[in-house]
Each structure stands twice: as structure tokens, then as C-alpha cells.
Amino acid sequence: MTPKKLWRWLAAVILGSFAVLIFFGVEIYRKVPPIPDKIVTTDGTVVATGQDIKDGQNVWQSIGGQTVGSIWGHGAYIAPDWTADYLHREAVLLLKNLAGKDGKNYDSLPEEEQVKYQVLLKKELRTNTFDEDKKEIIISNERAKVQAELASYYAKLFMGDPSMEKLRDQYAIAKHTIKDPERMKQMNAFFAWSTWVCSTNRPNDDVTYTNNWPHEPLIGNIAPASLHLWSGFSVLLLLAGVALLVFHHTKNNEEELNKVLPTEDPLRKMKPTPSMKATLKYIWIVSLLILVQMLAGVITAHYGVEGTAFYGLPLADFLPQSLSRSWHVQLAIFWIATSWLATGLYIAPAVSGHEPKYQVLGVNILFGALLFVVLGSLAGQWFGVMQKLGLVQNFLFGHQGYEYVELGRVWQILLLVGLFLWLFLMVRALLPALKKKDGDRHLLILFTLSAVAIAMFYGAGLMYGRQTHMAIAEYWRWWVVHLWVEGFFEVFATVVAAFLFTRLGLLRLKSATVSVLFSTIIFLAGGILGTFHHLYFSATPTAVLALGATFSALEIVPLVLIGIEAYHNYQVSKSTKWIKAYKWPIYCFIAMCFWNFLGAGIFGFSINPPIALYYLQGLNTTAVHGHAALFGVYGILGIGLMLFVLRGLYPEHNWNDKLIGWAFWLINIGLLVMVTVSILPIGIMQSIASIQEGYWYARSAEFMHTDTMQTLRWMRVPGDLLLAVGEVLLVAFIIGLKTGWSLKDKR
């Protein structure tokens, strides 16, 4: 197929997919669970107002939000999912009260009598009592009493009651996480409402707003038929997609490797321009961020066994788990993104041979701006989590509470401005090359479009406000996480890798161009609408579940040929003598293929079908996929791109293979050991508990702090140590390029 036809297909896929994504986004807006003006009892007593619920959402965000347990399954893993925890406690207390009204003790009743009260409980909790005209949710007096009891329980937990010290430690919640009783009252209102969403049937339907999530047999929250149906369909579609892709590859396979290889490195004689040299400081900052992010990860992992201390040091007093985890995730995104931005700034003038006027000044200004955003957002998160900001100030400068977009709104805006500055610097340097109608043009256009998408799609994080409905905020948040991080960054990286290999004369330009365009079409065909697989249980309509299941299966299809891509990269690494200078960047690309197949493919699809995610969402199975995909794919690819840039900045010497070799293997082996020896077994055991007992139990302190689970947590240490040593050696290698200990003889 010609590049021209492939461009048409790509345009059709993008336009069609976004039309559907936006159409069903409108459906999410239309069918969100109502936030009432008031929650009242049957006798008219006001339990909470709608403003209490909205402010309570902001209080929850201010303490770290999705870094302190989770809501609707989205968030951290140490503390419970608060909706599942609240629902189970509410159900148990109501059962006792219902039996108590008849003078009976529910726990001592025979099973057949317990069933009677479970029927009454289901009627109490699942009946939708929202009055559309009055904008009120009406609850019974008995339920209001239970909610008051739960409000007291959560106040003791979050506000420092001594009787809750052990449980706080198990949940890694710092003492006095919430200091103001009024804020605590508001957060309790938010907990009660978000749980009401999970237990209440949609109007004229027999499933809850969250498609019967979480699994809670006591109230009849079991997997509905739609989950089984669309899970089966997704597997069938995956098999069909794999068969078609293999057929296409077999029929149209064209050798990409160049048969006539250059006798020497085509890029060696290229002299870095001032702006290209200026990207070195980005790499130094990436190195520093890697170390800080690693340290934050070590602290966060340790909080799983010693919730409010670090080997006896009361670290949670000034660095609670919610903050260390926020920094760990946010710094990962910062250093990975910075390494890719630096690569773009380096490649643009290298490709065009044109250094625009004041380009180096722009690169330096962008560097200062990124540094300001990184340091400012981390400081703002500390002030927010430590409850030193008002709710409005926290949203603007502190902690937004949403995973992967934790930084305050002002920092989000500044980062978006920085991304557009990066885009401007890239495009102005590429313009001379884009004007040429040569063989590079298709790759350059795709490279430019992916850069435009990277700048634009981060802006989706600005589409929700401080008190936007959670279901709507989740919709836009996953535009950032899935489309920005997992989508267009991957397109950008694919194009960069292909472009580097064609510039080195190792790949045939025409076949590489066709291959990249085809891969992008296949990836985005599933990837754009695959965004919905994150929203199965985020109070979205069933149609979203159907689309997410269908297209997330298609996301896996391109990964079946990942072994061929890895083999091609390996062939490249052995193709000619001078290519040995690029051994470790290419090895990073090979490792990225491995992690793409394992982390994004196997671990990703194992939790993607609706029936699987129904039981597994927010368990450590998600952490397995997250670590293997985010660090294994994007992190190692970022390291590979960084090494390519360093190869160009230090062209005259061979590298110390022992130092970078140890770093490479320790990073990859450490990540594999950490994921498979500790996190995966924990996730499997949680999965069994979730299926057998209920989701609340899989996240409970009772289950997570058994001796077996604690032992599995400690078994993470060997993998963490290997990974940490590998990262330290990587940074030592980068420093050594400047000092000389990472260099050997001249090339």
C-alpha cells in the first residue's frame, strides 16, 4: 500500500475514532449520577447538601485523593477503596439494625433467615430514591443513623483518634491527615454519595450506576450479563484481529533492512549545533529526577509494611505516603517526558541542518520553565497534602487528587505553555526539511503531527474544574493518561526510532515509512476508543463498557508482531561494525519491545476485559501492568532515546560497555524480579479474595496484613535493589561521559 493511501486511512481512523469518543463523552455528561441539592431522611431531616458533597470531593483531593486509597477503583493500593469499604460497612450495620428491629441478632441467625434480611437490605440500598423534581435523595432514618455511625468511624480514622492508630498504620494514613472537623464532615458526605452511586440502580434498570461494581454479594452487586457478553466478544475480536494482522504481514512483508549498508557512521561527522548541545542539561536533570523518583518509590513501597514510618523514622509526619506516591508517579512522568522532549529538540536541527536564530535561547528558556514547573508543583503538592492551603488554593497550586495529573491547575497551565513552546521550537527548526519533497517527508510530517498531538492533548486535563462531577473528571483525566501518555507519545517514539535508523542508513526509507504509517493506523484504531476501558465502572453508561471492551482488545493486536520488531532491532545491532557504537540505545529499543509485549500486552490484556477488571480494578494486578508498561515501555524507551542523543553529543569515543551494560541489565532484571516475585503474587491472591469474598475484602487491612502478604511485600526488596543499583549506574555512566570514566578509546 502506498503512503498516500495510508495517510487517508490514518485520517479516517483518527477522525472517526474521535467522533465516537466525543459522542459517548456527551452521553457520559447526560447520564451522570445526580448530585442532589440535598440528602434528606423520610421525615425531612437534612443529612447533607449538594455543596457538602462537592466540597467533600475537594477535601478528599486535598489529602492526596487517589493516592490515599481509591474511589470507584481508581487510585492507590495500600489503603482501601473507600466506596467499597463504606458500602460493606454500611451493609453490615444495616443488616444488624434490620434484624435488631425484630429483636434478633443477625450474626446468630440461620442462613435461611439471614436471606430474608438481605432481601430487605437490597431493597433499601438498590432502590433509586432520587426525586428529580426536588433534586433530593431520600434515605430511611435507619440508613441515616448508620451513615452517622460511619461518619464517626471515618472521623476517628482521618483525624487522629488513638484507638485507630494501628489501622492508620496499616492504611499508611498519617495522624491528623484532616485537621478541621468541618472538612471531615464534608468528606463524609462525599464518601456517602460516591457509595450511593455504587449501590443504587440506574433509573429503569437493574444495574447500578457503576455497572454493579464493586463486587459485594450482600447487596446483590454481582457481575451483570453485559460484562460476560462484552468480555467474550473482546476475546473473539482479539483473535480475529491477530489472524488478520498475521495474514497481512505474511502477504505484504517487505524487508526493511538496507541491503547496502554505509561503511561508516553517517551521523558521526555531524557537528552538534548550539541548541543541540543545550539539550545536555535536560539529560542531567533527567538523571537527577530518576534518582529522586527512585527514592520516592522506595519510601512508598516501604509504607506498605510500616505505614507511617521508614525503618522506625516517623517520616509520615512530614512526608506521608500520599505525598511520596504522588511524587513517585509525577516524577516518572516528568523525567520520561523530559527525555523525549530533549530528543525532539536534538533531532529537529539535526534533521534539517538548520539552526534557527535564537534557537538555543528558546531551548534554555524552556529548560528553566520546565524546572520551575517541576519544583513548583512538587512544593505545591506538599503544602496541599499537609493541609496548609484552602480548597480553592489547593486546586490551583496544590494537589488535584487525580492520579497522573496530581499537580495543581496553575502548574498544569504552565506545563501546557511549555509544551507549546517545545512544539514551536521543534517546528521552526524542522521547517526547511518539511518544505523539501523528498523521501523523508512522510516521516517528518508524522513526527510533526505527533509532536502537535503531544502539546495539544495534555490540554484535556484543563477540561474539568475544581468541583466537576467525578464521572466527567475521570473521562477527561483518561484523555491525558491514555491518549497523551499511552497514545501519541508512543506514535512519537515509533517515528523517532524509525527516523534514526533511516538516517543511519540501516533501514530502507520507503519500507520504513510504510511500516510506521501502518503501525500507527493499527495502534490508533484500537488505542483512541480503547480509552473507554478505563471507564467501565466510573459511573458511565453500558455503551461505554461495550466500546471499551471492543477496542481495548484491538490495542493488543499490534503487539503480536512485537517479536518481529525486536528481531529487526537485534539485526540492526549486528548489521555492521560501526553500529556497535549504538549498541545500548538499540538494546533499549529491544527491551522496550519485550516490555511492550509483557507489560502492555500480557499483563494489560489480563485485566482489560470487563469481567476481569470487575474483580481486579485497583488491585496489585493493576500495579503489575502499571510498572511494566510505564517504566518498562516508556521509561526504557526514554533512556534509549537519551542514549542516542548522548551518542551524538560525544561522537569521538567508544563507551565503557561494562558500566552501561551493568546498568542496562540490572534495570531490566530488577524490574522483572520486582514485578513477578512480589507485586504479581500479591495481585493474584487479592484477585482470589475479591472473587470469593468481595472486593472490599481484597483491599482490607484484615487480608492485606496477614503474614503471607507481608512476606510477599518484603520479597519486593531484591528486585527494588537491583533496579535501584541499575539506575545509579546509569546516572554514573551519564556523569562519566563528562568526567571521562565512561569513555574508552577513540572510534
UniProtKB/TrEMBL annotation:
Query: Where is the chain membrane-spanning?
Result: 227-247, 282-305, 327-348, 360-383, 410-431, 443-464, 476-502, 514-537, 543-564, 584-607, 627-650, 662-684, 721-741
Recorded hits in InterPro entries, A to Z, give: Cyt_c_oxase-like_su1_sf (IPR036927), Cyt_C_Oxase_1 (IPR000883), NorB_cytochrome_c-like (IPR054309)
**Source superkingdom:** Bacteria
Q: Does the keyword Transmembrane apply?
A: yes
> What is an example of a GO molecular function annotated in this UniProt entry?
cytochrome-c oxidase activity
User: GO biological process: what's one of them?
Assistant: aerobic respiration
Instruction: State the UniProt keywords alphabetically.
Output: Membrane, Transmembrane, Transmembrane helix
Q: Which GO terms describe its cellular component?
A: membrane
Give all residue intervals belonging to the Nitric oxide reductase subunit B cytochrome c-like domain. 36-215
Cite a single Pfam family from the UniProt record.
NorB_cytochrome_c-like
Under what name is this protein listed?
Nitric oxide reductase subunit B
Q: Which organism is it from?
A: Riemerella columbipharyngis
